[in-house]
Every structure is written in C-alpha cells, then in structure tokens.
Specification:
The complex is a heterodimer of chains A (128) and B (509). Chain A has 128 residues and is mostly helical. In chain A, 81% of the residues lie in helices and 0% in strands. Chain A contains six helices and no strands. With 509 residues, chain B is an alpha+beta fold. Chain B is 61% helix and 9% strand. Chain B has helices spanning 2-34, 37-44, 57-71, 123-133, 139-163, 180-193, 195-208, 210-213, 216-222, 226-236, 255-265, 322-335, 341-375, 382-411, 419-440, 443-459, 461-468, 473-479, 482-507, and strands at residues 75-81, 91-97, 104-108, 115-116, 271-277, 285-290, 302-306, 312-316. In chain B, helix 5 (139-163) packs antiparallel against helix 7 (195-208). Classes of the chains: A mainly alpha (128), B alpha+beta (509). The interface between A and B is medium-sized, with 34 and 34 residues.
Chain lengths: 128, 509
C-alpha cells in the first residue's frame, strides 16, 4: 500500500461519507416502507405512507439509495474493495436506522400513540 | 411441516450455541483484537519509536543484512521483513542458527541497522494467536476444539437464519426494556446487521481448518500414511530451487541489486519479505516475496535468486490456479490484512457485533428460563444457575482479564524472567479469580461488580500509561502518534461505555 496525497484522501473521505449518507437514507426509506415502522412515522409522512403506491415508491427509492452507495464505493475503491467497503458500511448504517426506529417508537408510545401502537404490536404483515 | 422444521432448527441452534458459546466468545474477542494486533503490539512496547512506513527497500534491507552479518554470520537462515504497512510496521529480522531450535528476532532502526530494545512481551500477537491456539492446551487439542467450534458456528448461523421467522420484517426492530423480547431483538439485530461478515468469517474459518477437518479428501488421492501426507503438502507448497549448503564460503550478492531486479520484474510493486537460506555459503538462496496483504486475495509473487551470483533461479506468480485463488481469497477476507483504516474499523465493528451476538444469545437462554421459573413459581434448576454464573465470568470476565494483561505489561518489572509468559499468566489468573467470584456471587450482583472492574480496567489504562511511561496521551496527541493515542482513547471510551452500562444496572431494582 502506498502513501496517497492528502487531496486523494480528502476525495476518498467525501465519497465514503456520501456513500454512507445514501446508505442511511436508503435503509431508512426501506424501514418506513414496512408496516411496523410506517405506523411510527412522523405526521408529515403518515399521509403519504397510507397509500400503497407511495409505499412502493419509498421501497424502490430505498433500494436505489443502497445501490447508489454501492456504485460510489466501487467507483472510489475499485470493484473488490468497493463491494467489501459497502458490505462493511451496511452494518453500522443498519444499526443506526434500527436504533432511530426504536427511539421513534418510544417517542410515539410516550406521546400516547394509540392506534399506531396497536398496529405495530400486531407484528408484521409486511407484504415483503 | 414447515413449522416443525423451523422448530427443530431453533432447537439445534439453541443447543449448539449454548454448548460452544463460551469458546466461540473467547475466539471472537481474541479474533477482533487480532484486527488491531500490531497496534496493540506497539502500545505494549512503548520503548519502540513511532513506526515509519513505507520506507525505501534497498537501504533498509542493506541495514538489516549488515546487522545479521554481525550477530549471526553462520546462521542457517535469515529473515527480513521490510516496513511497508501496518502489518509489519518495523524493520524486523529473524535468524535461525545452525542446530538451534528456536529462531531469534530483533527490531532494527531502518537507517542505522542498530537493534531497538523493547520489553519482553507477547504483545498483541500472543493475544491474537489465542484465537486459534487457545492457551495451556496441547496444539492438537486446541486445533480440534477450535475446529468443532467453527463448525458449530457455521451451523448455528444457518439454523439461526432458518429459525428467524420474520428476518425481513424484523430487520430494523429493537424493543428495549421488555425483558426476554429485548434480548432476542438485540441478538437478532447484532447478528443480522453483521450477517455477511459472520457468514464469511465462519466459512473462511472452516477453510483455514480444511486440511484438519476433511483430511480424507487428500487421502483418497494420495493414500494413507505420513509419506502420502508429505507428498501431498510437497505438491501443494513445492520448494523452489532448494539446495543443501555446499560447505564452501562465498560472499552474498548485494541485496540492493536483488531488490532492484525484483521491483523491475514486478513493475514497481514493493518487496515485503526477504528470506535467505545458507547466507555466506556457495549455495545460498535469496527468496523475495511481494506484499501478500496488497488485496483481499492473500497471495503474492515469489522470486528465488542464487545468493552468490544474483541469477534468478525460480519464480512463482501470485495467481496459480482458480481453486488456490479461491482459498487465498477466503483466507485474505478472514484475516483482513489488506484493510485500510476505514475498512479495518468496520472489521473491528463486525467482530464486536459477533461478540455481542454470542453474549446476547447466552444471556437470552438464561433470561428465558429464569422468566419461565418465575412464572411457574418454581426454583431455578441447577443448569440455569450454572449457565447464569458462567455467563458473567466469561462475557464480562474476559474483558477484565484482557485489561489485566495490559496492566501486567506496564506493571511487571522489565528484568523479570519469563516476563512475556508472566503477563499471560496474569491474564488467566485474573480470569480464574473472576470465575471463583461468579461462582460464589448471585448473578445480578456479579454482573455489576465485574462490569465495574472492566470499566476501571479499561478506563484506567491511559492513566497507567502516563504513570509508567513517557508515551502518555498528551505526548501522543502532540506528537501525532495515532497508535498510542488511539489505544489510550479507545480504552477510555470502552471503559466509559461499560461504566455507563454498569451504572444503569445499578439503578435498576
């Protein structure tokens, strides 16, 4: 492995940060497209998530975001290392989205979310 | 039918996990530490200066040769590892004297070739080697335990995936403070979030052990017996231009010339390792290896030169066959030697999640049965009480023991005999005491006490470092010494996290 210039390192940092952001957004979109987490969505999104068409759009946007992250990683690091980096980044991003959904759920319950708490405790009929 | 299959896979998953969980936890903790082995090495040898790499090969190798010529002119074999990346950050030489059993080694100043003095310690390497050698066990016994554990891990992962009914719907699900459900959610989340890594690490672990696990495949082609085994390995790893010593003296060719030739043939790719057989003999052989941690496939180009004339005698390219490259890819992915800092951090995270996966699984087993005992208003069975206490001693005890290893590194007298071994004995002695503590203490209390010990053990390391050496945190930060500062800060962060958890448990009724 050879020393890279600070410019190259800066560029790498930008690309990887961008890939991480795409992954986070993509995984978040996928999570809200699920029944369980859609029930806890903020008010602004709740209306949209009621329509199955928008759910599907959200799901495919999520997939697009995740693929965009893969493309960015492969572009920056080459195919082999890029795939490995992407697989590695999926882990912290999945954890962050899961923790965020958990926090959101607790907030909803604390705010006395009646209907949504009943719906999500029914578990998944997610149609995945 | 599907329900019965899933249930039986869940049953298998539970029992496999319980029986080998503690061994696998030890393997995961030491394996994760292995991704930071040379960083730990450097913290445990504060006498060594900050590593500089990569360095020009010619001058560094020449300095190494002149040192070897002064300390071991009649050695059977010299080895030189050049500092090109974090895997071998210092100029490292080894020599094996004729007739001697163990090779000797030294770190050298890359410019002068002078030997660098450092305390006698196993460092991060010994901690990492416990990942497959365990400790205090005969080599064969450890190999079999590790082989069975790896097989069990693979099966546990597959049965876990089958048994996880709503793997997609529950992908982002974590419901805290709900007892057994939370432990199951945590176990599932830790496993699924790092699932590609877990599948890769267990399968590649099996590939590492494949010659032991499935020896009959070679037997089917080469026949039984030790001669057949020798033939098999001889074909798999054939010697290159090997020669016995002639007995006549002849000067070694200039190493700079050899390196120049090698780099020219490899279009500028770096030389990482030089191995010299019978230096000073007319039949000397110089083997030159490239960097096998260049990429995920763990293989490299090899050149063998005549040690007197400098003529190229044999060469072997990095890629020899698809099956071999597949194996080398598995080994490379497992070891992660090629990983740059960001990917290495992700490897460490995934390794830690593997530890969490096993720990939550072990605790879940006890929580489930404890809740069942409470609901059924009957006393907990002896097996449950045993597992509850073993869980504390292993899951929380091992981090305390490893912290004790680092404390021993700073506290044991430098001139102590067998110092390196004593550091390891300190680690296992502390662990034994924690087992005794867990045996005599109710599980709830034992968790809290051992957690506080772990927190103090980890967070106290930067203070200990400052008190016992001059490579303390302020110095490391000012000097830009990322490794020393990283270790101190990392341990401080880890200790703080464990303290936060211990505080939460302390406040629970």
């Amino acid at each position: 492995m050879h020393c890279r210039s600070s410019l190259a390192l800066g560029e790498q940092a930008v690309m990887l940060s961008l890939a991480t952001v795409f992954l986070l957004l993509g995984l978040a979109a996928l999570s809200f497209a699920m029944d369980r987490h859609a029930a806890d969505a903020p008010q602004a999104m709740a209306g949209m998530l009621a329509h199955p068409v928008w759910r599907r759009v959200l799901r495919w946007s999520g997939v697009a975001g995740i693929m965009a992250a893969l493309w960015l990683c492969a572009k920056e690091q080459g195919a082999a290392r890029g795939v490995l980096m992407w697989v590695g980044l999926l882990t912290p991003c999945t954890l962050l989205v899961a923790c965020a959904q958990s926090a959101l759920r607790r907030q909803v319950v604390r705010a006395g979310g009646g209907y949504s708490s009943i719906r999500s405790d029914q578990g998944a009929h997610s149609g995945q | 039918m599907k329900g019965a299959f899933r249930q039986s896979m869940a049953w298998l998953h539970t029992w496999l996990g319980l029986l080998l969980g503690w061994v696998l936890y030890f393997m995961f903790v030491t394996g994760t530490a292995g991704y930071l082995d040379t960083e730990i090495d450097r913290w445990m040898r504060p006498e060594l200066p900050v590593a500089q790499y990569p360095l020009p090969a010619g001058g560094t190798a020449a300095a190494a040769i002149s040192h070897l010529q002064s300390v071991a002119p009649d050695a059977r074999r010299w080895g030189i590892q050049l500092p090109i990346d974090r895997n071998e950050p210092y100029l490292h030489v080894t020599w094996q004297a004729s007739g001697a059993s163990a090779p000797a080694s030294a770190w050298l100043d890359p410019h002068t070739g002078a030997s660098l003095q450092a305390r006698d310690t196993g460092g991060g390497q010994w901690l990492y080697q416990m990942h497959w050698r365990l400790h205090y066990l005969p080599e064969l016994a450890a190999e079999w335990i590790v082989s069975v554990a790896t097989l069990v891990l693979w099966l546990a992962l597959l049965t876990g995936i089958v048994a996880h009914r709503r793997i997609l719907a529950d992908f982002f699900t974590f419901r805290p403070r709900k007892g057994q459900r939370s432990w199951l959610d945590g176990h599932n989340l830790a496993s699924v979030a790092s699932l590609p890594f877990q599948l890769m690490i267990s399968y590649s672990g099996l590939v590492f052990l494949m010659f032991s696990l499935v020896p009959m495949i070679a037997t089917a082609w080469y026949g039984p017996g030790t001669q057949a085994v020798r033939t098999f390995y001889g074909e798999l790893f054939p010697p290159m231009a090997a020669a016995k010593p002639s007995g006549e003296r002849a000067p070694l060719v200039s190493i700079e010339q050899i390196i120049r030739d090698a780099r020219q043939r490899w279009q500028g790719e770096p030389v990482a390792v030089i191995d010299i057989q019978h230096p000073g003999d007319a039949n000397a052989r110089i083997s030159v290896f490239g960097n096998f941690a260049e990429g995920p496939v763990r293989s490299t180009n090899t050149l063998v030169y005549d040690g007197v004339s400098g003529a190229l005698l044999a060469q072997r390219p990095a890629r020899q066959s698809a099956p071999r490259a597949s194996r080398d890819l598995m080994l490379g992915l497992h070891e992660g030697l090629f990983a740059a800092p960001v990917l290495r951090a992700l490897y460490v995270l995934s390794g830690l999640l593997g530890c969490v996966m096993i720990a939550t699984g072990l605790v879940l087993w006890t929580v489930k049965r404890r809740e069942r005992a409470v609901r059924g208003r009957h006393a907990a069975q002896a097996g449950l009480r045993l597992v509850e206490r073993l869980n504390v001693a292993v899951v929380m005890g091992l981090p305390v023991a490893i912290a004790a290893y680092f404390w021993a590194n700073r506290l044991l007298p430098l001139e102590m005999a067998q110092r390196a071994q004593m550091e390891v004995h300190a680690m296992f002695l502390v662990w034994l005491l924690l087992f005794v503590h867990a045996a005599w203490t109710p599980a709830r209390k034992a968790w809290k006490v051992q957690a506080w010990l772990a927190a103090a053990g980890c967070a106290g390391l930067p203070l200990l470092n400052a008190a016992t050496t001059d490579r303390h945190l302020a110095h490391s930060l000012l000097a830009g010494d990322g490794v020393m500062a990283g270790f101190d800060l990392g341990m401080l962060a880890l200790g703080t996290c464990i303290a936060a958890a211990a505080w939460r448990w302390g406040n629970k009724p």
